[in-house]
Amino acid sequence: MENKNNKKINYDFTDEITCPYCGVRESDSWENNENDGKEYCGSCYNTFFWERNISITYSSSKE
Ligand SMILES: [Zn+2]
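Above: inputs. Below: predicted complex with zinc ion.
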């Protein structure tokens, strides 16, 4: 059985901005034009910083 009170909030490298206090995810993270910023959580009323993790990969193929 999983103890929900000890459940670790995953807020690193998520596909949405996630509140580090309560774990609520922002469904409209992609609308942020900045790569980092300050966000106010409407769920737990805490303010937190976020940054966008950008990873670039390359693919190639034979001509
Ligand atoms: Zn929150």
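The mean pLDDT is 82.
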